[in-house]
Amino acid sequence: MKIIEIKTTQNVVLQYELADLRERILAFLIDFTIVIFAILILSSLASAIFSGTALSVVMILVFAVFIFYALAFETLNHGQSPGKIAMRIQVIKVTPGQPTFADYAARWVFRLVDVWFSLGGIASILIASSSKSQRIGDIAANTTVIKLTPRMDLNLKDILDIHAQSSYTPQYTQAKQLHEEDVLLINSALTRYRRYRNAAHQDAINQLADKIAEILRVEDEPRDNKVFLQTVLKDYVMLTR
């Protein structure tokens, strides 16, 4: 599992799990299948309706679907084509900020080398071997592809220790109602706070604690938001193990 950390302009460090080669290949195959079916259907309709010069013009437009498919979807859909949506992965910048049209265009141009001319060989080698899982297009655009649903991977020592404490009584029994995504967010926020103790991450802890307290309908406001989140995390593990 490869991880990338990106520091925002507000000095907050965001951590993402990078999409692996298998997920990116499957996303590409899904997109390729969609494009082929679209071309076949549009070509059949065009042949049945048009003829002569009109048919030639329409076929050029149909061919443009194949050429500009990836660029159009990633630009208009925030770094996600239908294949990426299906695999729950997304293109992001490895530096603060959102990808621009120029970034998506750079990725699209280098697909000729990364994917088509090398039959995917160059892209596969670079994605598998580079620390940020970048193909040439990603390097040129300063982008990468991340997972939107990271794996459930809680490695906090205090959480693991709780398994051995049979006498432990959960303080917030409603913690079992949380989704895995909520628990992952709590774990990630606490981890970042431990590593980067600054006002921005403290504010993130405070906002997250308020939101979790609202979800769990905790009436008494927690005195220490960090301790509150740690307790909720422990209770979740205890109640769902």
> Strand order across the biggest sheet?
1-2
Please tell me the overall pLDDT.
85
**Distance N to C terminus:** 24 Å
- From the alpha-carbon coordinates, what is the Rg to the nearest angstrom? 23 Å
State the share of residues found in helices, binned by percent.
55-70%
- Uncertain stretches: none
Number of alpha- plus pi-helical segments: 11
Query: Helices and strands, in N-to-C order?
Result: EEHHHEHHHHEHHHH
The outline comes out as elongated
How can the largest sheet be summarized?
A: 2 strands, antiparallel
**Strand element count:** 4
Q: How much β-strand is present in the residues?
A: 5-15%
The number of distinct structural domains comes to: 2
Broad structural category: mainly alpha
Topology, element by element:
Blueprint: E1 3-7, E2 13-17, H1 21-49, H2 52-76, H3 82-87, E3 89-93, H4 101-109, H5 111-117, H6 121-129, H7 136-141, E4 143-147, H8 157-162, H9 180-195, H10 199-216, H11 225-240
Antiparallel strand pairs: 1-2, 3-4
